[in-house]
Every structure is written in C-alpha cells, then in structure tokens.
Amino acid sequence: MEEIETLERLLEIMHAHDLDALKVTVGDRTYELVRREPGAAAVPVVSGAPAAPGLPGVPAVAPGSAKRVTAPLVGVFYRSSSPDAEPFVTVGDRVEIGDVLCVLEAMKLFNEITSDYAGVVTRIIPENGELVSLGQEMFWIEP
C-alpha cells in the first residue's frame, strides 16, 4: 500500500507542476513516470522490479556476445541529428567507443548517446521518433 501512496503523491507533483516526466529514487526503488497523450496507457517504471517479458518472437536478451546499449534516460529516440540528416549509425556499421549512436530528446534537450563498446551494430531496436524508457535496449553491438 505504501508504494501506491508514493505513486499517487508523485502523480500529484507531476500534475501540480505540469511535468511531462518525473524520475525519483526513494530508498532502493526508482520511480519513473512519463505523461502520455490522452487515451494512451501510462505505465510507471519501477527499477528493482522484475523485467517484463520480451515481445513474441523477439529475444529478450542479446544473443551470444552482443553488448546491449540501453537508454540512460526517458526520451524520444532519434537516429540522426535532424530529419534530413543521415543516421548516426545503421545495422552493419562498425563503431568505436565514444561514437554517437543516437540522440534522446528529453524535456526539450537533445542528449547524444555514445557507445561504450567497439564493434559492429547488429540491431537497432527502437523506431525513429519512439519514446524509450530508462534501461530499454536500443542497440546490440557485437565485438
């Protein structure tokens, strides 16, 4: 019941301050709430809770030795710096540590996401313009 009260209080704060997203750590739990368009389901993300299963036919874990690049924040995923620019990377590209993979737009700020791994991009999971959650897989990179 305490967790429900915490979520309700966080929602009140979001509404009172007209926030689109809110991330708060309380003890060993991190609560991340994102406002959706009317009619869309809003699902709070709580770290420390079991992960949701993968989509049918899509493996939940990268195969073999692939390294997973996950979203460090909630934001809108963009493969390029502008709509008319080339993507930062495509499947099959070789990347080095520090190469820009994408940008995530959060609260009207564009955050460059760089690779922590050197290797070949084998999968790009989110669609361009898709909202990604904290910790969501975005890229698989094979050494």
Walkthrough of the structure:
This protein is mainly beta and 143 residues long. It folds into two domains: 2-47, no CATH class; 67-142, OB fold (Dihydrolipoamide Acetyltransferase, E2P). The chain has one helix and eleven strands. It has one helix spanning 2-16; strands at residues 21-26, 29-34, 45-47, 67-70, 75-78, 94-95, 100-106, 109-114, 119-124, 131-132, 137-142. The strands form three sheets. Strands 4-11-9-6 form a four-stranded antiparallel sheet, with no helix packed on it. A four-stranded antiparallel sheet has the order 8-7-5-10, with no helix packed on it. A three-stranded antiparallel sheet has the order 1-2-3, with helices on one face. The radius of gyration is 17 Å and the shape is elongated. 19% of the residues are buried. Mean pLDDT is 79; it is low at 37-61.
Overview in brief:
The protein has 143 residues and is mainly beta.
Structural class: mainly beta
* Parts with pLDDT < 50 across at least 5 consecutive residues: 37-61
So what's the oligomer here? Answer: single chain
The first-level CATH class of the largest domain is given as Mainly Beta
Overall average pLDDT: 79
Secondary-structure element series: HEEEEEEEEEEE
Rg for CA atoms: 17 Å
> Would you identify the CATH H-level superfamily of the largest domain?
RNA polymerase II/Efflux pump adaptor protein, barrel-sandwich hybrid domain
Helix content: 10-25%
Count of helical regions: 1
Beta-strand percentage range: 35-45%
Q: Spatial order of the strands in the main sheet?
A: 4-11-9-6
* Envelope shape: elongated
Q: Largest sheet, if any?
A: 4 strands, antiparallel
Distance between the termini: 46 Å
**Which architecture of the largest domain would the CATH scheme give at its second level?**
Beta Barrel
* Number of E-state strands: 11
